[in-house]
Amino acid sequence: MSNIAPTPWKLAARAEKMNPSVLREILKVTERPGIISLAGGLPSPKTFPIQAFADACAEVLHKDGAAALQYAASEGYGPLRQAVADMLPWNVDPAQVLITTGSQQGLDLIAKVLIDPGSRVLVETPTYLGALQAFSPMEPTPVSVASDDEGVIVEDLVAKAKDSRFIYLLPNFQNPTGRTMSEARRAAVSSAAAKAGLPIVEDNPYGDLWFDEAPPLPLSARNPEGCIYLGSFSKILAPGLRLGFLVAPKAIYPKLLQAKQAVDLHTPIFTQRMVSAVMKDNFLERHVPTIRALYKRQRDAMVAALKREMQGLDVQFNAPAGGMFLWVRLPEGIDTVALLPQAVERNVAFVPGAPFYAGQGDPRTLRLSFVTASVEEIDTAIAALAMTVREALANPG
Ligand SMILES: Cc1ncc(COP(=O)(O)O)c(C=O)c1O
Domain total for the chain? Predict the structure, then answer.
């Protein structure tokens, strides 16, 4: 007789479709002491302005304690919505800004408002895995648009646009590839999407983290009525705040707001007021350059280590102009999912690239974060990774 009681819980069809993140399963092998992880998407804790938060926290509690601890408007804290509108490089009405609980919540709200079962949703090749996860409970049909070093290829976008609900794009320092869409590509994508009547969801959490020059204007600046823009405080202040925002056209804003009300009524007002206080006196204009400088040094270290250690191997990698991630393609015959446990034996972890593809993944690819480990750790980790690759090539299968 089985001692497992039958469960009284009948799951919704949508819950049956929710899978544990493939990535989380793959990365379980990396949870071992002593591993240098280039896998996580964690900003460097060295960049968290802890004292500024301590001061702002005291200020908010002393000045507006009761309001900071009360229920608040679903749209977000007025001065923060205004600050977001002021921060963006096109003319944004604060009434179009919705403060979200991380930009990840923005993706969830967009999925609820725009996706029916079977709706075609166009994505880059590869794309941000967290977006695929946010969309998936609404049961879309994700369609991969062919992409190169500058992002989606316009001809393929045009060929696939018909009957699609939207295209999800990450023009700046993309997660996972680190690539950036050029000015010319932005102009072409923006006009092709407008011509095809295809809305754009533009996700830009990394745009401020440029190293040498600011990226071209967002797609949303070119056609605000055709775009929903997502932004985040996670990479320029701290991810634990869970604070992001979206900017949506008037035609769709009320629906996104209603979806948000159902999810969490509003984003924590205490956090919103604290961030608003931190941002006073142009704080970000002083703070963000320090993040850029740190991440640029780390990117340089990783690119130098890859050049040194991968010499003689057929390995391709880029030198991203900003953000947190670098994309690598290993020699023919290597599958990075199979390689990961071998790398972990040598105390280094990365993220295999295949899960980031909505369609068939490229098994030779992997994503490296250059921001979490120190320069010394990056050197050690890339040397270990190169050794793992050489060993795998020497012992195929
Ligand atoms: C491309 C992209 N979009 C959205 C998010 C979610 O960010 P958050 O919810 O912390 O604002 C991330 C997080 O890493 C990301 O890389």
Answer: 2
